[in-house]
Structures are given as structure tokens and as C-alpha cells.
Predict the structure.
Amino acid sequence: DAKTTQPNSMESNEEEPVHLPCNHSTISGTDYIHWYRQLPSQGPEYVIHGLTSNVNNRMASLAIAEDRKSSTLILHRATLRDAAVYYCILRALPGSDSGYALNFGKGTSLLVTP
Amino acid sequence: NAGVTQTPKFQVLKTGQSMTLQCAQDMNHEYMSWYRQDPGMGLRLIHYSVGAGITDQGEVPNGYNVSRSTTEDFPLRLLSAAPSQTSVYFCASSYWWDTEAFFGQGTRLTVV
């Protein structure tokens, strides 16, 4: 299975941009890059996903390296509500070794300070 | 539109007891799955279903059974609870394999 590597923790000041990195050097050509976050005592929440091109939505932006071996989740203005664990996940095609699973690692714990 | 609903939110079981964790979704999603999350860990897949009548095992299926008789419901059964099954359980659903997954709020299970 393709694996992802994220820093254990990061810290940001409120209202500043946050760049959360993810390395996935063994990514295959058909793997999608998904980001989820988990706020304290809640279920995971979808943030964004992409394949090759950079993606934007109301929550965040996803910047994907040209060789697809790394990606960065960008929160444009961090708020206290963004304090959560952020998971970078590769989704493989059904029928592959990892199948349907969302393979959560330990993620990056983001601390936002006022 | 309630999304993914899990019941109960909290449960304490004695070793050897059986119980069923309920999961229901009202979004007409084909894909449903169960995960467990142990303290300080990421989620691990227990079982999943790609449609009514179709289920398969995930990473940690031992001690759990599932069935999918309707599109809406995907119950998880603990056959004989063990302390190692103390965990938070999350149910998720999605329209297709690569689309946004919606998670329930979780069931916190303690086995004593």
C-alpha cells in the first residue's frame, strides 16, 4: 500500500495561513489524495481531495506537486475551530490491495493559538 | 437530512456479552463502513459494504459481524465482547469509492 508521512504536530496563530505537508513518495498513478480532519470528540470530516491538479473549496486548498510525491493542505486563515487532527490519505482503486479502506495514519495535530 | 446516525453514543458491556451497534444513513449511499479508533491512534477499518447484500472484511474484522439487508442500514455485531474491543466506533458512508465520506458521531464502547 502507498503510505503517507505527516508531521506529528504543527502550531499556527489565529488568522494566519497554515500549510500542512504530506509526503507520499510511493503514490501510484491512480491514487487520489484525500484530506480529512477530526475535531476533538467528533467523527472525521472530509476536507478536500484531488488527483493531479490543485483544488480549492470553501474549506481549504490542496496543492499537489508536479511529480505527485507530496501535497500540501492550505488553510487560508486559521481559526480556533480549525484545531484538529488532519489526515492525508491515499485512496486506491477498488480491487487493489488497500481496496475501499480509508487508511488513516496518525495525522498532524494542529494547534491554533489566539 | 440527518446524514449518518449511530446509536448508542455510549455503551458499557461485560466480557462475553453481545450487542449490536446501529448505523443508518439517509443519503442513498452505496458504500458503508465501520472503523474503530483506539486512544492516540488513527481509524482502522473493520468491515465494509459496497451495496445491499454485499459485505467484506477490513483490516481488523475478528470478533465482529456485519450484514447489509437495506441500503440505509449497516449494523455491527459484537459476538462475545472482550476488553480488547474497548474503543470508539465510527460508521461512514459515501456515494462512491472515491467521493466524500460522511462519518457518524461515534459510539464509545467500554468492555469490562
